[in-house]
Amino acid sequence: MDIIDTATLDLGSFDFTPEWARKAAGVSSGRWTPDKDDKRPANRQDSQGQRKPFGERKSFGDDRRKGPGRNGFQRTQMRPDPVRPLDAEIKILPETKALGTIMRKLMLSPQAFKLKELAYFLLDNPATVLLKITPRETAGGEKPRFHQCKACSFASPNRDDVVAHALAAHLGDYYETKEIEVEPPKGNFNCVAKCGLSGVLLGPPNVHEFNSVVREMIRTRYPNMSEADYRAKIEMVRDPEAVEEWRKGATKKTVLVPKGAGEDAPTLTREQAEAEFRRTFLDNLITEPKVLMMTAEAALASPLKPLVYAVKDALQAERRAPYSMIFALRGAFRHRKMFFFRANDPRGPEFVIGHELKEFDAAHAIPELAQVAAFVAENPCRSQQEIAAISPDAARHLAWLVSTGHIVSFTNGVFSAVEKYPKYGPQWRNKKPRPAAEAAVPTNDEAAAPAETKSAASAANKAETPAPAPETPAPASVETPNAEAAVQENKEESKDESAPKLAE
Fold it and tell me: pTM for this one?
């Protein structure tokens, strides 16, 4: 069984503070420490002040701590004046395969994961973010039309862009290349063409395959050059030795054959294979949708700059406050009957766990289990090493209590008893306890009374005052019967929750 290593699942926190903001605050270590007037949340860091991501992070091309990246993810990047972001509604969702992988790991892990950190893990990887892009109508009442590749979601308003992409990226899905031996070219050749950029001998210009060789060089080595610019770099060498060298190297030829066609399948040149691909597969590979569904990775690779800028703006806004991603994750997890709770207080960080949490019943447990459970209840947020030091079998008992939902195990390596708001991180320690009821000021007669009389009166008061009833912990989660109910419940919760809940 593929059990997650808890060391790799520490979703502590992330520091997205820009370099200029940290310098202005006098922070040089890359860690943000809020002051008393700073309203930004302080719970993006664990008790050790470290952030360890859920998995490998693949940035959208920008690390705010190091300035804008090659894709210019920040709004501060200079854009060409005529280019404006595409006017479209962009919804940010988790990619289906990535979401399924996360849910399987959550179901196999006994730990509780911070919902916000799961959202940031997806947002940090362009391939795990699914975009639903609905272009808005223009002033003339028309919507932009797009063409999209079904194989990888590549899209452009120009069909020729998608056709060129399909030929370059997906021709190999239908044809495989082979290298075959052929006879040396026959005839008298006075000169041979040579690539002025790489020095490769292309062949005599009067050979039938010469134009195909030129286009193949452009496709494989110089895709950003036009054919006219590349031909301007070609040199003609009138040297018999160069002609003979080309003749010896022309005994091998690369051809294409349809996949699964067998050994006797006819061989095709690149041009012949592309022509057959256009006739047979291209129409079924390209669609014209009204709403674009594509990953952020595919959107950022689009040649349509307005679309790229609109997607970058939407992703940056989502990273500041991941409302859409959290909303989608919450609905998906509830549909799979996972459980949610908040830590420390009703407005604390929200967590998700794959199994139900249950209060531990010490009266019906063996003393060793009760000892470990009592230690965690009295000393929340203790590490596994400290708990294991209680007794020789404490670590084994702790693992059982965590797996059965009697103790909450967080991804930062600390534990808490199951209660209405389990303790998490250092935040709960910083809260001042509520002040106790002020004692009545003793009168002169009370001050003069003998000590025995005071003790008796105190004992009588205690006997008359009933003991407070123990508070019943709230259930860890409410199961929803289906996906529609989960979405509706999320909508109702979103109305009640204020921004600081998600932007903690």
Answer: 0.62
CA-CA distance, 482 to 485, in Å (whole number)?
A: 5
CA distances from residue 262 to 170, 176, 255, 257, 270 in whole angstroms, order as listed:
20, 11, 14, 9, 19
By the 8 A CB rule, do 378 and 385 touch? no
Mean pLDDT, all residues of the chain:
76
Burial of 118 (0-12, 13-18, 19+ CB in 10 A): buried
Residue 90 or residue 54, greater confidence: 90
Residue corresponding to tokens 């009703």: 346
* Res 104: pLDDT: 95
Rounded to whole angstroms, how far apart are CA atoms 132 and 94?
A: 11
The Cβ-side half-sphere exposure at 237, using a 13 Å CA radius, reads 20
Cα–Cα nearest to 382, from 409, 360, 401: 409
The contacts of residue 216 (CB under 8 Å, 6+ apart) are 270
| pLDDT tens-digit readout, 386-427 | 899 999 999 999 999 999 999 999 998 889 999 999 998 765
* Alpha helix stretches (DSSP H) within 286-393: 296-300, 305-320, 323-335, 367-378, 384-388
Residue type, 336: R
